[in-house]
Write a structure and sequence with these properties.
Blueprint: E1 5-11, E2 15-21, E3 28-31, H1 36-46, E4 52-54, H2 60-63, H3 66-73, E5 76-80, E6 92-94, E7 99-102, E8 105-111, E9 120-124, E10 129-133, E11 136-137, E12 140-141, H4 149-160, E13 167-170, H5 175-185, H6 190-204, E14 212-213, H7 214-220, H8 229-234, H9 242-255
Parallel strand pairs: 3-4, 4-5, 5-6, 10-13
Antiparallel strand pairs: 1-2, 2-3, 7-8, 8-9, 9-10, 11-12, 13-14
Helix pairs in contact: 1-3, 5-6
The protein binds zinc ion (ZN) and fe (iii) ion.
The site of zinc ion (ZN) has 5 residues, from loops.
Length: 256
């Protein structure tokens, strides 16, 4: 099977747009639609034709370009069924356990409520690639606009169970600010410290810090580590369970 091709480009102020293509069939998916014009320009530059749109959640910077991109390309839209009242237009409503495909490549749809209650992510298990929207960021996670800490911890736990080599495409370039916060709650973590230096160097050169890998995030992202004794101790909750520690870390990030 041919390898998936991916194009990543900046949209709006700090979103990333992604196009994913199966070269054998030419099937090409737009992951979310923060900015239809930017997607059309990226597709044009690559010589690709967008045939599908896969939404992660209803926020404007993820589904706001659906109508314009569909009008320009005729792409078929897949969107989370949990958001039927607030995403439009869509052709197929999908949810946990469903699969979407690009030629012979299959992506599993995983329900990850927390940031919003409709959020889904797309996991190409065969290629160890995932598009995680606003659920997981490099050194961070989505703000809990709708879900509870329990919801988000359960969602992140699903992602954390994937193979370490999984490449994670997050929807925003938030990493440098996330690193500053992560160091405030996990200052002695050597993997985090070296990761933060690497991030500063990349940003100084204007380079993206996305994608990241699950291995790196498991070692350094505080939102994937609330069940470690180091992090629990660091936020003064040594005897607490992971949900309580997660909630405390998330609350501190909201105030940071
Ligand atoms: Zn969002
Ligand atoms: Fe977003």
């Amino acid at each position: 099977m041919s390898k998936l091709e991916i194009r990543q480009f900046s949209c709006l102020s700090d979103n990333y747009g992604f196009l994913v293509r199966d070269p054998a069939s030419g099937e090409t998916a737009a992951i979310d639609t923060p900015d239809a014009d930017a997607y059309l320009a990226a597709a044009n530059e690559a010589g690709w034709t967008i045939t599908q749109i896969w939404n992660t959640h209803h926020h404007f910077d993820h589904a706001g370009g659906n109508a314009a991109l569909k009008a320009a390309t005729g792409a078929v839209i897949y969107a989370p069924k949990y958001d039927q009242h607030r995403i439009e237009p869509a052709d197929h409503w999908i949810g946990d356990g469903d699969q979407v495909r690009l030629g012979d490549h299959i992506a599993d749809v995983i329900y990850t409520p927390g940031h919003t209650m409709g959020h889904i992510v797309y996991h190409f298990a065969g290629q160890k690639i995932a598009f995680v929207g606003d659920t997981l960021f490099a050194l961070g996670c989505g703000r809990l606009f709708e879900g509870t800490p329990q919801n988000m911890w359960d969602s992140l736990s699903k992602l954390r169970a994937w193979p370490d080599e999984t490449v994670l495409y997050c929807a925003h370039e938030y990493t440098q600010a996330n690193a500053a916060f992560a160091l405030s709650v996990d200052p002695d973590n050597p993997e985090l410290r070296s990761y933060a230096i690497d991030i500063d160097q990349r940003r100084a050169k204007g380079l993206a810090t996305v994608p990241t890998t699950l291995e790196r995030e498991k070692a350094a992202n505080p939102f994937l580590r609330p069940d470690t004794s180091e992090l629990a101790k660091s936020v003064g909750l040594s005897d607490a369970g992971p949900v309580e520690v997660f909630a405390e870390v998330r609350a501190r990030k909201d105030r940071f």
